[in-house]
Amino acid sequence: MEYHHIPREPLGFFPTPLIELTRLSHALGGPTIFMKRDDQTGLALGGNKTRKLEFIIGDALAKGADTIITAGAAQSNHCRQTAAAAASLGLECHLVLGGQAPAAANGNLLLDQIFGCHIHWAGAHRKGEDIPQLVEQLTNAGKNVYVVPYGGSSELGALAFVEAFKELEAQRSEIHETFTHIVFASSSGGTQAGLMLGNRLFDSPSQIMGINIDKGETDQIPFDEYTLALANRTAELIGADHQFTAADLCLNDDYVGDGYGVVGALENEAIALTAQTEGILLDPVYTGRAMGGLIDMIRTGKIKHTDRVLFWHTGGAPALFAYANDLRI
Ligand SMILES: *Cc1c(COP(=O)(O)O)cnc(C)c1O
């Protein structure tokens, strides 16, 4: 595999810490639980999109872009980190956000405003359906526009998680640890595709288990097919001779509840337990749901007390403030 010619713009602080959560593990009666702290990537309160943006913004700069567009939900962590990356490089940034402008901005949206980006409200179109018109408009105005894909989940975004897996491998082997499962929130597929490929390239025995966050009812192709295809395209990008099939994908749909961003008892308990045993903040949309899923799989015996689990913390805590009225803690 050869990808060191692919441009990469440094945006975060790496490696992120790998820590053991002994008090959370004890509260659950086992298993051993480690956490990869990608909530600490350093860019504008951190998160997994920082890794993806290093490759995606690297590509934008190589193509001479002066204007960045991306899309997401009003509380998108991806949009917040993109806005910060653009600001740090003097690029103009446009965000196409689902919903309507709220009376007062909070959480990630407040941070988007602080980073000085242009916000376009798109109603029900939270996945960038309105981007083509905006590209045309900005191009006609003389801008050199680069569109960052939804959630940063292109081959370049997934490649960042092959690199992240390599980073984890170095930390893991130093402490002579082996993980039976790597559990994380999955929603646009880049994190999962990259970790799957990394796991394969490093001959790791871990099960890469994404917890599906989003029902994906507006997607054109089912999320599992999308993620598999992305893993295969990423393998191709770096010349790795791997073909994944449906049997290689572990995407758990059991915890989508009432859909994207709808906080229930599962998320509330996971956020409270992790905060109160470890002093670590999860978020209401992604990591709260993924940790809730992990806790449930431990309680129902799908993950055994003798297993050794890595929970990949993908960030998101800035959204807690915007969800203050939905949290019951
Ligand atoms: C975007 C995001 C995810 C999901 O990562 P994907 O690569 O889009 O699947 C998980 N957690 C947080 C906090 C995120 O912002």
UniProtKB/TrEMBL annotation:
Swiss-Prot/TrEMBL cofactor(s): pyridoxal 5'-phosphate
Modified residues (N6-(pyridoxal phosphate)lysine): K49
SUPFAM superfamilies attached to this UniProt entry: Tryptophan synthase beta subunit-like PLP-dependent enzymes
Residues in Tryptophan synthase beta chain-like PALP domain copies: 12-315
Top-level taxonomic group: Bacteria
Alphabetized UniProt keyword annotations: Pyridoxal phosphate
Keyword set includes Cell membrane: no
Active site (record annotation): S76
GO molecular function, one term: D-cysteine desulfhydrase activity
Family the entry assigns: Belongs to the ACC deaminase/D-cysteine desulfhydrase family.
PANTHER family, A to Z: 1-AMINOCYCLOPROPANE-1-CARBOXYLATE DEAMINASE-RELATED
Name under which the protein is recorded: D-cysteine desulfhydrase family protein
Originating organism: Psychrobacter halodurans
